[in-house]
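FORM 12-B: Structure-to-Sequence Request
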């Protein structure tokens, strides 16, 4: 039998209503009926495009919250990447949100500790910043949405530090492939933290990530990597690559 309540799926940046890292998800894997599963939209519940995922995060949070509030509790969220930042702002602003959330490969909870050097200026993080600008330039030339590292919504320019909200049980599953971009203190205080040996998108197909997410949504205990060998490995890599971090 399926579990009560609704499962909300929130994809990350550059997804659309039909494509994205979570577009393949079978809600039955997590114990939910497809009829009680909602793919959240970045455009007021209507079909959305890549461009819609690049808007102001506070605006996105209000759009997402409105859709969540339409379903009665219990409400559970499975999100990827940018979904973590949107959930942060949703809770901080006191908007209706889920009761339980699993975030796959979320961005780090705090702004990076360095300023992004201006183009051509030496400073900590310059190699990574210059590389990000090159990738953005290439995307722009081939017609893909470019996410400028100098843009206000870019991870390196985030200014809001969001505190943990104990009213929502959250599991953050960190992709080891992302660890080089994370701050040394990548763990989210007061939450469950798991490190998945995968890359940013591959985590959505990882067997351990799926098992932990399923158990957490069902209220079963899950392993926490805040002090495990996986967590130590993620921390070591993040410090080793600190000079490259934008």
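FORM 12-B RESPONSE
SEQUENCE OUT:
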């Amino acid at each position: 039998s399926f579990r009560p309540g609704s499962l909300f799926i929130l994809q990350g940046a550059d997804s659309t209503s039909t494509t994205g890292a979570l577009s393949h998800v079978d809600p039955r894997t997590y114990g939910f009926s497809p009829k009680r599963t909602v793919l959240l939209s970045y455009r007021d519940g209507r079909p959305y495009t890549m461009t819609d995922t690049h808007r102001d995060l506070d605006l996105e949070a209000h759009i997402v919250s409105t859709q969540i509030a339409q379903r009665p509790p219990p409400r559970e969220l499975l999100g990827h990447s940018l979904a973590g930042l949107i959930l942060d702002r949703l809770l901080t602003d006191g908007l209706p949100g889920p009761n339980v959330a699993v975030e796959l490969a979320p961005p780090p909870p705090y702004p990076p500790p360095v300023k992004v050097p201006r183009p051509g200026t030496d400073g900590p993080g310059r190699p990574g910043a210059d590389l990000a600008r090159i990738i953005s330039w290439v995307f722009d030339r081939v017609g893909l949405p470019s996410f400028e590292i100098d843009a206000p919504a870019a991870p390196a320019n985030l200014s809001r530090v969001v505190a943990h909200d104990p009213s929502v049980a959250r599991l953050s599953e960190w992709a080891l492939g992302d660890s080089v971009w994370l701050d040394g203190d990548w763990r989210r205080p007061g939450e469950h933290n798991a490190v998945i040996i995968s890359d940013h998108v591959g985590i959505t197909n990882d067997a351990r990530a799926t098992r932990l997410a399923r158990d957490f949504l069902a209220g079963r205990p899950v392993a926490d990597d805040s002090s495990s060998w996986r967590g130590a490995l993620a921390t070591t890599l993040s410090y080793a690559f600190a000079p490259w971090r934008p």
